[in-house]
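Anyone able to model this chain together with nicotinamide-adenine-dinucleotide?
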Amino acid sequence: MLQLQNFINGQFVPPANGRYLDNVEPATGQVYSQIPDSDTTDVQQAVAAAQAAFPAWRALPAEKRGRLLVRIAELIERDLERLAQAESQDNGKPVALARTVDIPRAASNFAFFGTGIGHFSSESHFQEGQSLNYTVRHPLGVVACISPWNLPLYLFTWKIAPALAAGNCVVAKPSEITPATAYWLGELCQEAGLPAGVLNIVHGTGPGAGQAMVEHPAIKAISFTGGTKTGEHIARTAAPMFKKLSLELGGKNPNLIFADCDLAAAVSTSIQSSFANQGQICLCGSRIFIERPIYEQFKELFLARVAGLAVGDPQLATSRQGALVSEAHLNKVLSYIELARQEGGTLLAGGQRVQVPGRCADGFFLQPTVFEGLAPDCRTNREEIFGPVVTLTPFDTEDEALNWANGTDYGLSATIWTTDLDRAHRVAHQLHAGVVWINTWLLRDLRTPFGGMKNSGVGREGGLEALRFFTEPQNVCVRL
Ligand code: NAD
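re: yes, here you go
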């Protein structure tokens, strides 16, 4: 059985304690590899390697650092098929999705920041006859990147690439549930010639390896994506140590569908935003509010499309829905389906675990599920389910839709469907969401600030925001 290793100081090494964790393939329910159950000792080794590599890495001209990152991007593209297969096996997502979204985006992350660092200029402020101030942006030193299981390589590299581009050395931990592509990334970094210790990848659990990273005094900043509860815990640990924190957390995103929208496009994209990656994208819209005059029509078209979403082996091109990431997560989502029933919801589609015949008989599959008739403020409509479960709710006025959309503790993203330009902007500005899409969903420009309001996070990733996060500004004032 494949046994993954940590990547520390440019070498693949076993965990110091010799312990390993089983890694399960969600589509089959079978253990197919093992990963290090790393602890403080491994993290200390990784931090020491990063500290040793830092002076030379920060001294390397930004253009040379950037070229190395672009080389890694090219190698990811070269190995796209192998990485897509690995991502699909590890996560349960359709291989077609990994091939078209996850892995290309991981390559783009490296290419974007590898070239972007060359355009990252410092600010200066001139006061005639008085002073010239200029700002130097120093790399922080050793930083931690901790990522979740839903978009494994995509989100892992979204943090690592800007951190490295800005001149930091990194200790990174992928989710213990989806470690595979992070492991292969280590190999590609070796091949690209990334100097030893610049990127260290430590595998293991959150309470084990993750907590040791958060507590390590030499780690100056933590870029974390994951659940809101975990983010809260990390903030509590890191705040007294004055570490910089970027927290990308949960969501409960609304789709607002107005009667004047392009209905076919709204239905088609809402299918994507509800069920892509089995609903396991932080940006998925799980609460669909539809203006009453088109409610029945939207519902009918939406349900017809849901019926066509084939659930099956992620390796097959015909499968539109793969497996959920783990049995524990499947059970959590099923418990929310039960809750929605108890809260008085009417089940319009799905609701059941799916038995896929053949090699996937023990996999963690679930039907795409749709409810209506739930109060906008019930738990089903306020808590993050993070699975293929959505609710449909009619609304009568713009204010009502806005109140309901804003009526959760989360504020990550929102989608508006309308052809009324005034309304589109008016509603967008009143939504408590860090990202608002108008007549589209998940259309990304990597230069834009990305992140959530309220309990969906602190800080923003993307473009210059990420490069600012991973640097410490120092102002130098010269008297004229
Ligand atoms: P999680 O919080 O359980 O784990 C995320 C990562 O944190 C994992 O690597 C885990 O091992 C680690 N971790 C857990 N406890 C830790 C600790 N005490 N110290 C340090 N690290 C620790 O989240 P998950 O279940 O892997 O991912 C799903 C969640 O991620 C959902 O809530 C989803 O909304 C969120 N998410 C948010 C975004 C975003 O951009 N806002 C993107 C994707 C996913």
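Residues 146-150, 155, 173, 175-176, 205-207, 210-211, 214, 225-227, 230, 233-234, 248-251, 282, 384, 386, 412, 452, 456-457 surround nicotinamide-adenine-dinucleotide (CB under 6 Å).
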